[in-house]
Amino acid sequence: MLKSIIIEDQAPAQFILEKYISETESLRLEKTFSDALEARKFLEKNPVDLIFLDINLPLLSGMDYLRTSPNQPLTILTTAYSEFALECYRYNVVDYLLKPFSFERFSQAIEKVLTMTRTIHQLSEGNEISEGSQVYFRSSHDLVKVESREIIFITSDSDYTEVITTTQKYLTLDSLREWSTKLDQNFTQVHKSFIINVNHLIKISKNKIHLSKDHIIPIGRVYKKCLMDSVERRK
Q1: Which domains does the chain have, with CATH numbers?
Q2: Could you read off the pLDDT of 120-132 as tens digits, one per residue?
């Protein structure tokens, strides 16, 4: 059972969250707070697994609370405003519930929390989740699992990274450096903005790489030798 707290200054919203939590077997409510500063004091001595956090709060807003609170528990934002949805995923936010939300939508958010908690637990015990055949990452509101062999390439553009698979595309905030630690030996960086799955390589033509699904991407000069070595190992 996951221990949780509510940080919400509106009584009707507090009541709804308390009701939903009481009807969810996997959750236990420890306490409800009307402002984030009081909640922060409580958490210093009483760790929890999950926070339900409103954005519009007195004294310290929900977003400022996230920005100034390192090592936060998993968090579900509850708000009537959608403009912070993208920024919130830079922090330990699992889902973003727009008020008013139903019990069904609440339950979907909790299922994401439970999935992420199981994954974190496996990793903390040193267990392999997939023996390198799958990768997990956060994309928008979801924790996504993708078969490594389905990833064609990953490209970075400013603050965002796009994962191109054989069936669809995903946006994530993970950097290429972070991706390089998740991926197996079938992946190699070929440009400052691209990592490819060598198994999808069709041909190398001058300074261009042709991949499956008609993708053509550049080769960075400093990465070319590493790419050729990776190809040679597969002969």
Answers
A1: 2-124 (3.40.50.2300), 134-232 (2.40.50.1020)
A2: 665 445 444 444 4
Residue of 120, 78, 85, 122 lying closest to 101 (CA atoms) = 78
Q: Supply the pTM of this predicted model.
A: 0.57
What is the rounded end-to-end Cα distance, in angstroms, of the chain? 51
Give tens-digit pLDDT for 14-65: 999 999 999 999 999 999 999 999 999 999 899 999 999 998 898 898 888 8
Distance, CA of 41 to CA of 54 (rounded, Å): 17
Distance CA 206, CA 203 (A): 10
Q: Judge whether 197 and 148 are in contact, CB under 8 Å.
A: yes
Give the Cα separation of 214 and 200 in Å (integer): 10
